Model the fold of this input.
Amino acid sequence: MKRAILASGLCGVTALMVAGAMKVDGISERAKKLHFSSIVVDTHDDTTQRFLDGKFELGPRDANGSIDIPRMKEGNLDAIFFSIWIPSKITGPEAVNRAMTQIDAVREQVAKHPKDLTLATTAADIRRAHKQGKIAALLGVEGGHMINSDLGVLRKYAALGVRYMTLTHSGNDEWADSSTDKAVHNGLSDFGKDVVREMNRLGMMVDISHVSDKTFYDALEVSKAPLIASHSSCRAICDAARNMTDQMIKDLGAKGGVIQINYHVGFLSQEFRDAEKANPEIEKAIQTEVNKRCGDNEACQLIEGDRIVHEYMNAGKLPKVDYTKIIEHIDHAVKLVGAEHVGLGSDFDGAVMPLGMEDASKLPKITEALLQKGYSESDIRKILGENTLRVMSEVERVSRESKSPGKK
Amino acid sequence: MRLIRATLLACLVGSVFMAVNVATGDDIAERAHKLHFSSIVLDTHDDTTQRFFSKAGFDMAQRHTDGHIDIPRMRDGGMNAIFFSIWIDGRTMGPPAVQKAIDQIDAVHQMVRKDPKDLSFCHTAAEVREAHKQGKIAVLIGVEGGHMIGNDIRVLRTFGDLGVRYMTLSHFYNDEWADSSTDKPAHNGLTDFGKDIVREMNRQGIMVDISHVSDKTFYDALETSKAPLIASHSSCRALCDHVRDMSDDMIKALAAKGGVIQINYEKSFIDQAYKDAYDKASGGVVATMNNITKECGDDEECVITKVQAIQAAMEKSGQLPPVSWERIIDHIDHAVKLVGADHVGLGSDFDGATMPTGMEDCTKLPKITEALMRKGYGDDDIRKILGGNLLRVMEATEKVSKEMQSAH
Done:
């Protein structure tokens, strides 16, 4: 509190007003009003993995994980991209089959909750859902290995509603290098470039999270539509290959794209990263414990991993990372390229969340923090979702134009 | 004696008189032409899809001298609604089957995309009627064999989402959950999971097709399904004793629940003498198919070409008797006499079977209308057989689907 009062000038006055209107939950009336009237879009959630065992239901509040309908409503998460994900090592028809079943799992959840959820495939769909008070559910395929080098499969994903595809996951696929694998394609292969062009034609956003820097630059050059990084943060703050350098963020922004900040502690905090690196035995112990609790159940692994790391943080064995780190990354990117090119890509249910951002209900804290920093309401709305909607509209326009007669 | 001779003479003269009238374009020929070209002529089974994969690059928009189907010939024959069959050999199962089916579905979609002036992709009976109004050919998709869902109900749903409007429960071989008519029974008809599949098809609005399945599978499906069934391409066993055809009892049971038998034009399904000679010459259809698939591997176009080539060679050598297209009319008439004109339709098997003389391709379809008219069929009944019945079953299937989904 003291720090806010000490702040000088206009900012100080704003902070004082905000502080005055603060509620018990730490969110001011102004932030609440802004947050709950905005369209809040999250471009990356791994909750899909939880649908696969047939037991998890989005309807009731869940004691585990970060996403369900009650908590999305509490945090006003209006539009969510459910990630279709299988490990990179699964390829071929098996990958296609498994991706199809995950797409179905999302569509079935939507069908089961028609009052709360609606499947959206366009920016207009999201705005309509928002007006109706429904949560827009969207689909993103996290890894090009799931198309099995087959544009026909890519097209069927689009037909089923998939609106972005991450060009790789953590391993290279047949036509693109990943940031966490040895380069073999020197970025995108020729076929990989065809994939990007076909995505443009289909109106599917090209997602460059996970890909190698060279793949990013190849995709940037080939794509007629702006790119997204669906869940990546800033390498200048935390030096992870999964994050983007300042130059990459600038180049992405220059072509109208948007970086959607990932909340994973290992991508937010250099201190956490260093501690992990310095104590490989901790990571090993965590992995052992995860395997013990989950076997090969991927949804369980993701959620228990988050829980166990929190236990380590709370016990002081790993540095505590709190949600204000998210704000730091947003602010860094905004200072670099402006508020038009930054958004939210939590990685909820797929990563280790920082303290204070345990689940979707905590999202208003981001709005509150940005207001405190002096961000304008209009800039905050952009970061919360309007930027993603703008890229979607742009991608839709490129798709329409490539289909209109007379155009090749 | 004299009296008899006189009567005979009168009859003869009368016949000659009629024949003369036909030759010069009598009233019936004109009326039949009008009726045919104003009707929705819907064919529920065409294997042309396999040609889309042909190395030569098959173009639907061009008139061909081989095969049975292309747009110019469909226009000539007044055929304005077609179910393209998605088919792979029944021994390809699991994820490879799913992937190949997706590729074929995509091939049909792509074909429609290339020719939007002539073709319109349809999901519902209303869309078929609308396409007809616009002078377009309605394109629909049927999956010929339950093995293509990879034993996974979620894949079935995504097929439905991609526009598949019927699924044949099995093809030539048993799949994981249904017995085929041309394989040794392994499931005693439909397994419990097979029944779940039928129920899910009802829920998704996918017509249940009982061509190819064993008699027991047929009766199980009939009992389980809330919507009427179709036999997308089967003829009458009473006229030609082939396991692929339906017995009179089966046709009656199918009709009693509102279903429809779509008569198959394949020579060995419609002509007993031909079928007997074929069995004698080849050792039966099962042995022949086994040999062919050994040669062709998983090249589906090769299988179809080989089947036709073998039959053609046997015909040429005189081992097989000629079969006239009029046998098709016999089968239609038999089924109509059995269950009425509301339960019979057309399921040619064009591009997937050997056609009888006089029905060499889809340009010959108007002959069916004229023949039925000459038999004294009313205009309304003929329209039903040409397509109206199938549209009625589609509508009934859509209704069941809506009811099941709203009862969620």
Summary: Confidence is low (pLDDT under 50) at residues 1-24 of chain B. The first strand of chain B starts at residue 42 and ends at 46. Strands of chain B lie at 42-46, 81-86, 119-121, 137-144, 164-168, 207-209, 230-231, 260-263, 344-346.
